[in-house]
Design brief:
The chain has 16 helices and 14 strands. By secondary structure, it is α/β, with parallel strands linked by helices. The chain folds into three domains: 293 residues, Rossmann fold, CATH 3.40.50.1220; 72 residues, no CATH class; 49 residues, no CATH class. Helix 7 packs across helix 13 and helix 11 runs parallel beside helix 12. The longest helix is centred in the first third of the chain and has 18 residues.
């Protein structure tokens, strides 16, 4: 059988056991986060950017040809749907300023938006019954990912962060199906408005004692590029809408040929978004990502992310100035980019400037794993260690307690700080007690 495992930390190749040990230590650092890209949702029905572009090129070939003729589609944004939509949005605003006919622009934008939203639907049946994510076979690795990520948190440690460039609801559905509170910046029952201060709050179980203190009860979620559940309001704010309420509007939009049917979803954080009043939400998400990368004793795991977003790449690169940050990257195409001596499994790929710089630096802070299926999301879910019931300190305390039970004249209830201690022989003096103990031991 051909070996398909490859992992490297700095310039040192890791065995399977060494990588597992490193991940087990990193996942228990004080601050832990995961950055997920489109690849993390592929198994549950999501599409990669390349998949979306193929659909656009196939279903809307005339639109693509028109965009090229108008020089809105060029070498810079060819294949990058988000950059293309940004160009179209700017052209729409400029046309409106000049009072030009922008009907064709709006129609092309409408068709491209439909392709993007279709990619974020995942599974139709989950929109009305999101609790089924708890039993859906395709969500197995998402459930493993969550239970292991939060279960490895130690007493007193902060809840983990999940940063994602995805618009879909895979993370929210999985967390809710597992009973994990998802802190995503929105708060409210009937009117879920965006309030960044919620990211500074946490949950704890006031009844928890001993081993029950392990793990956390919430996860922080920052969607860097927006979400299909975010809708802008007429008042210039943003609210989060339940999937069952939003689905009919999304269906109407996808089935419509009119650009006027756009339901106002906040999913395209292009340059134009930052001149709108609702653009602050994207800035806040990026700020939280930057803030995490500067924290001491932090670990960031990257999975399903193709390093196509320059602004995120630059943040990751600059974060390496934090000497206590550990970066673990899952990269399926690792063998095809020609940086490491691995037998290639396909056509060679040219990494972008930031990814190439990241890998060629060979810093001991950076651990990379890839090659074939070992770089996908299911591999991350399997690699994360099962939550330990006791950490090393607790194990040492338990051993000490057992030792004291054998040698101490004081009941364990006293050792634990509960109850009162009474000598086993109240009439015996200190020497007698010591002799009795020595005789028993």
């Amino acid at each position: 059988m051909t070996e398909t495992f490859f992992a490297v930390r700095g310039s040192h190749n890791l065995t399977h056991e060494e990588f597992d040990a490193h991940l087990a230590l990193a996942i228990r650092l004080e601050n832990v986060a995961v950055l997920l890209g489109a690849g993390a949702s592929k198994a549950v029905g999501g599409h990669l950017m390349a998949d979306i572009w193929r659909e656009i090129s196939s279903n809307y070939a005339d639109d693509v040809a028109w965009l090229r003729d108008e020089n809105l589609l060029n070498d810079k944004n060819d294949g990058n749907v988000e950059l293309l939509l940004d160009e179209i949005e700017i052209a729409c605003l400029d046309g409106a300023r000049r009072r030009a006919d922008t009907s064709k622009l709006h129609l092309v934008r409408h068709n491209i938006r439909k392709a993007v939203i279709r990619a974020a639907i995942l599974k139709d049946e989950l929109w009305n019954n999101p609790e089924n994510a708890g039993v859906d076979a395709d969500f197995l690795h998402h459930r493993q990912f969550f239970t292991r990520l939060i279960g490895n948190r130690q007493p007193g440690q902060a809840a983990p962060w999940v940063f994602t460039t995805n618009y879909d609801l895979a993370i929210e559905w999985t967390a809710e199906a597992l009973g994990v509170h998802c802190v995503n910046g929105f708060t409210g029952l009937h009117n879920r408005a965006f309030r960044p201060s919620t990211f500074d709050l946490g949950l704890r179980n006031i009844q928890a004692r001993g081993e029950a203190r392990f793990g956390t009860y919430n996860v922080y979620l920052a969607k860097l590029h927006g979400s299909v559940s975010w809708v802008d309001t007429e008042q210039g704010g943003i609210k989060e809408v339940a999937s069952s309420t939003l689905k009919p509007k999304i269906d109407n939009f996808i089935n419509s040929g009119s650009p006027e049917e756009w339901p106002g979803l906040m999913v395209f954080p292009g340059a134009t978004k930052f001149v709108q009043t609702t653009g602050f939400i994207y800035s806040e998400m990026i700020r939280r990502f930057t803030e995490f990368l500067s924290k001491p004793n932090a670990c960031l795991i990257i999975n399903g992310y193709g390093f196509a977003d320059d602004h995120i790449n630059r943040l990751v690169l600059s974060a390496l100035q934090n000497p206590t940050l550990q970066l673990i990257i899952y990269l399926p195409q690792l063998d095809r980019i020609g940086i490491y001596p691995i037998a290639s499994s396909g056509e060679a790929l040219q990494p972008n400037k930031q990814l190439g710089a990241l890998l060629r630096a060979q810093l001991p802070q950076i651990t990379v794993k890839g090659y074939s299926g070992e770089g996908y999301f299911d591999a991350l879910a399997r690699d994360l260690p099962e939550p330990a019931l006791l950490d090393e300190t607790a194990s040492q305390a338990r051993s000490l307690e057992q030792l004291l039970k054998r040698v101490s004249p004081v009941p364990v209830s006293y050792i634990s700080g509960v109850g009162t201690a009474e000598p086993r022989n109240a009439s015996a003096n200190a020497d007698g007690n010591r002799e009795e103990d020595e005789g028993e031991s």
